[in-house]
Task: inverse folding
């Protein structure tokens, strides 16, 4: 073993001396992948977990020896990383399917049937891709002098169809700040959907070319950011609400927990698929002359990959986040103390489209119901049309002011809007800066 002249602390191993080391390290990994050929073995969450572990172990070994910086071992190392990406994505999606009843339990769930069917259709793609990676790994291993050997792999855990649960016997007695925590969780959930929409991810992506959206519109960093928002919400819930009296008595609260977990795991699923394309197939720092990216792209059906990312995962992230947002707003409405406030009417034209839109956006931002009371009738301030209708009645009455009823946070912002004459002749005030974002969504 030699020493690198550029760094006296870094020993150098020859490619020939490295061969028996990698020969030994990759056998279990290849043996687990080989089971994809065995129709008697269920490709389930437990299988993907084992494959993920073996891929991580081998990838760490290869990275420790700087194999991706060596042209001879670059392609082999990239293939191992690709297997790890797809095994992680498959694991997260199967985890959602396995835990679905725990997350939502069939309550108020109109999405489940479609989601489960499309999840299974999506998962059919994974053994196909992994099988092609396996064949290419065998070819590459053989060309480098590696012999695939028979290795015993325990498969009992892969045969488990359903994991039994112990009875729930632990409950929390701490209810001192439950209400504040629940409100915080609901508000955080709504902010997550807002970020999702700011990036236009709720809109249909029409392109048929992954390179047009990755990384410009979708990238690993953004998927990780959205997953982190939901993970923080879940952590706050599990720390302060799980097992509480409120959780037992309010079904909407535990439903929000499930509607946090599902899109969280879908973002993890997305993160690994986007990472695969961004790092290993198209934009990663791999020597172009090596031809590695081209060889990997030939193993992956990019039309199917695009469908997995856009038509399946992003689509259902949007559906579950939208559903969760409705639950969060319902929860917020349960825990607010409504107040009333009399505010002046916009001058000179009253509640026409523009001021009504700003009022509606403020109410939508806070997620609780606010009503304008005119002539004994309540008009929902979420609706621009209802506000315009109320404005017509106020004009007929020659009224100078209108009575609003709702959450203090919403009414405080409506007061600021009214103080600036509903932005009829001036810019949106700094305190209401979010209106600039919302009006463009």
Result:
């Amino acid at each position: 073993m030699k020493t690198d002249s550029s760094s006296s602390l870094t020993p150098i191993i020859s490619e020939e001396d490295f061969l028996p080391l990698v020969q030994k390290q990759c056998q279990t990994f290849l043996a687990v992948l080989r089971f994809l050929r065995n129709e008697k073995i269920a490709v389930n969450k437990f299988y993907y977990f084992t494959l993920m572990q073996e891929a991580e172990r081998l990838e760490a070994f290869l990275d420790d020896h700087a194999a991706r910086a060596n042209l001879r071992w670059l392609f082999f190392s990239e293939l191992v990383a690709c297997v790890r990406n797809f095994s992680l994505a498959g694991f997260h999606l199967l985890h959602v399917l396995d835990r679905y009843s725990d997350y939502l339990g069939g309550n108020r769930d109109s999405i489940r049937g479609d989601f489960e069917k499309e999840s299974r259709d999506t998962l059919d793609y994974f053994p196909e891709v992994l099988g092609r990676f396996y064949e290419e790994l065998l070819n590459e291993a053989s060309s480098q002098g590696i012999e695939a050997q028979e290795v015993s792999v325990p498969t009992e855990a892969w045969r488990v169809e359903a994991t039994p649960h112990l009875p729930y016997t632990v409950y929390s007695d701490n209810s001192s700040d439950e209400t504040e925590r629940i409100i915080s969780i609901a508000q955080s959930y709504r902010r997550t959907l807002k970020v999702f929409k700011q990036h236009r991810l709720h809109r249909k992506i029409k392109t048929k070319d992954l390179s047009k959206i990755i990384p410009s519109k979708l990238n690993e960093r953004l998927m990780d950011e959205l997953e982190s928002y939901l993970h923080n919400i879940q952590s706050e819930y599990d720390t302060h609400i799980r097992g509480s009296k409120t959780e037992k008595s309010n079904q909407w609260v535990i439903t929000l927990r499930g509607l946090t977990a599902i899109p969280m795991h879908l973002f993890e699923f997305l993160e690994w698929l986007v990472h695969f394309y961004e790092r290993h197939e198209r934009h990663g720092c791999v020597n172009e002359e090596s031809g590695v990216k081209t060889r990997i792209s030939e193993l992956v059906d990019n039309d199917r990959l695009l469908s997995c990312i856009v038509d399946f995962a992003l689509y259902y992230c949007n559906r579950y986040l939208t559903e969760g947002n409705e639950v969060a707003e319902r929860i917020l409405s349960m825990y607010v103390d409504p107040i009333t406030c009399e505010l002046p009417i916009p001058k000179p034209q009253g509640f026409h489209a523009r001021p009504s839109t700003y009022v509606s956006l403020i109410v939508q931002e806070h997620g609780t119901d606010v009503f304008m009371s005119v002539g004994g009738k309540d008009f929902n301030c979420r609706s621009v049309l209802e506000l315009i209708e109320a404005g017509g009645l106020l004009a007929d009455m020659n009224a100078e002011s209108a009575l609003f009823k709702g959450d203090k946070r919403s009414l405080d912002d409506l007061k600021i809007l009214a103080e600036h004459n509903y932005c009829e002749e001036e810019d949106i005030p700094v305190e209401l800066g979010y209106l600039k974002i919302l009006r463009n969504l």
